[in-house]
Specification:
52% of the residues lie in helices and 15% in strands. The chain is an alpha+beta fold and 380 residues long. α3 runs antiparallel to α7 and α7 packs antiparallel against α8. The protein is globular, with a radius of gyration of 21 Å.
C-alpha cells in the first residue's frame, strides 16, 4: 500500500493549485457578490483541459483517471466552490455519455467539449420540482412519435443550466413503471421548444449558474437515447455512483481552505496576552479540523482508486461524498467560530466559505440519502 502521489500526479496537483491561486481566488469574491457566471475562468480552465479532463484520449481528451480527477477537483474547490462546480460538474454531465453512449454519440458530443479555444459545457438534467431524491418519480414525459420522441416537462436546480451546449435529460416514457420507465436523452440546447426558465439566486456557490429548464414539445431523435428505453434510472445511478467522490473532493478542498484561514488567523489574533491558537480550546478545534480534512481526503482517494480498478464502490462513493461534504460544513463552521465576530463579516473569506459549504450536503444526493444507500448496502 502506497499513500504517495506519483510524480505526474504531484505535478498535476501543483499546476491546478497554481491555477486556483492565480486565476480563481482573485475573482472569487467579485463573482460571489455579482452572481455572474465565471466564463473567463472557464475559458482559461479549458486551456488546461480541466473542463473535459475525464474525456478519454481516444476521443481527444487527456483521459485522466478518477483519482487524478479527484486531485484536480480538490484544488479547484480550494479556490472557489462556485467556480469549481462550474468546471467539475461538467464532468458529471459527460459521465452518462461515457457510461452509456454509443460510439456515434461519444464521437459527436464529446468532440464538442474538447476545443480549448471555444470551450463548451454540458449539464446533467435529473432533478425536478417534485422529484429530487425520489428520482424514480420524474414527471418530464417522453412520447414516441415515429423516429423521434417528443419531450415535455421541467427541470430545476440544474448546474450550468443556460450556459451549456447540450444536456443529458432524464424522462419517463411511462409514469406507472416508476424507475423502469425512466429514459435518458441527449438534448441539444438549441432544440426548438427547449428554453431556460428562472436563474436561481443562491445563498452560496454563486459563481456557478443554477437554472430551470423548460421543455415544451421538444423533438429529439431516437438515436439520442442513452442505452435504451427504460435504462435511464440505471444510467443516472451509475453516473452518481461515479461522480460522488468528486463532490466529496470539492468539500475537501473547501474544508482545507477554511482550515488554512482559521489557522493563520488564530496565530495572529491575540487575546489574554497570547495568540488564540495557544488557547487549548482553539488548539483542539484546529486539531480536529486538520484530522477531518485528512480522513475525508483519504475516503475520496479510496473510492476513486476503486473506480479506476473497476471495483464496485457504491458504499465507498457514498462515504466519500457525505463525509467530504459534512466535513466541509463542520470545518467552515469552526473556521467562522475561530474568527469570532470577524468571521461573520464579508471582509473575511470564511464568511463565503460557510455559505458555500451548505449546498455540498444537498447536491448529488443529500447526505441523508447517502447514509440510506450505505445502510442498504451494509444489510443487503
Amino acid at each position: 500500500m502506497d499513500f504517495a502521489l506519483n510524480d505526474e500526479q504531484k505535478a498535476l496537483q501543483q499546476t491546478v493549485h497554481d491555477f486556483a491561486a492565480n486565476e480563481i481566488r482573485p475573482v472569487s469574491i467579485q463573482l460571489d457578490e455579482t452572481g455572474e457566471f465565471a466564463w473567463d475562468v472557464v475559458r482559461k480552465a479549458a486551456k488546461l483541459e480541466l473542463t473535459y479532463s475525464g474525456v478519454p484520449e481516444e476521443y481527444g481528451g487527456p483521459g485522466l483517471s478518477m483519482l487524478d480527477d479527484v486531485i484536480v477537483i480538490e484544488e479547484l474547490g480550494w479556490g472557489c466552490v462556485g467556480i469549481a462546480s462550474a468546471i467539475a460538474l461538467n464532468q458529471i454531465a459527460i459521465l452518462p455519455i461515457l457510461l452509456a453512449g454509443t460510439e456515434e454519440q461519444k464521437k459527436e458530443y464529446l468532440a464538442r467539449l474538447i476545443d480549448p479555444d471555444n470551450p463548451r459545457l454540458c449539464a446533467f438534467g435529473l432533478t425536478e420540482p417534485e422529484a429530487g431524491s425520489d428520482a424514480a418519480s420524474l414527471k418530464t414525459r417522453a412520447v414516441r412519435d415515429g423516429d423521434d420522441y417528443v419531450i415535455n416537462g421541467q427541470k430545476c436546480f440544474i448546474t450550468n443550466g443556460g450556459v451549456s451546449d447540450f444536456y443529458t435529460i432524464f424522462t419517463t416514457i411511462d409514469p406507472d413503471q416508476k424507475y423502469q420507465g425512466i429514459t435518458a436523452f441527449i438534448v441539444d440546447g438549441d432544440t426548438p421548444g427547449f428554453s431556460i426558465g428562472k436563474i436561481e439566486h443562491k445563498m452560496g456557490m454563486r459563481a456557478s449558474q443554477t437554472a430551470e429548464l423548460i421543455l415544451e414539445d421538444v423533438r429529439v431523435p431516437a438515436a439520442n437515447i442513452l442505452r435504451g428505453e427504460g435504462q435511464g434510472f440505471y444510467v443516472a445511478m451509475e453516473t452518481l455512483d461515479t461522480s460522488r467522490p468528486g463532490v466529496g473532493a470539492i468539500g475537501v478542498g473547501l474544508a482545507r481552505a477554511a482550515f488554512e484561514e482559521a489557522l493563520a488567523y488564530s496565530k495572529q489574533r491575540v487575546q489574554f496576552g497570547r495568540p488564540i491558537c495557544r488557547q487549548q480550546a482553539i488548539g483542539f478545534m484546529l486539531a480536529d479540523m486538520a484530522t477531518k480534512v485528512d480522513y475525508a481526503r483519504l475516503l475520496c482517494y479510496r473510492a476513486a482508486w476503486m473506480l479506476d480498478h473497476d471495483i464496485d464502490a457504491i458504499k465507498e462513493s457514498s462515504m466519500a461524498k457525505y463525509v467530504g461534504t459534512d466535513v466541509a460544513m463542520e470545518v467552515c463552521t469552526d473556521a467562522v467560530q475561530i474568527h469570532g465576530g470577524y468571521g461573520y463579516m464579508k471582509e473575511y473569506l470564511v464568511e463565503k466559505f460557510f455559505r458555500d459549504a451548505k449546498i455540498l450536503q444537498i447536491v448529488e444526493g443529500t447526505n441523508q440519502i447517502q447514509r440510506l444507500v450505505l445502510s442498504a448496502q451494509l444489510i443487503a
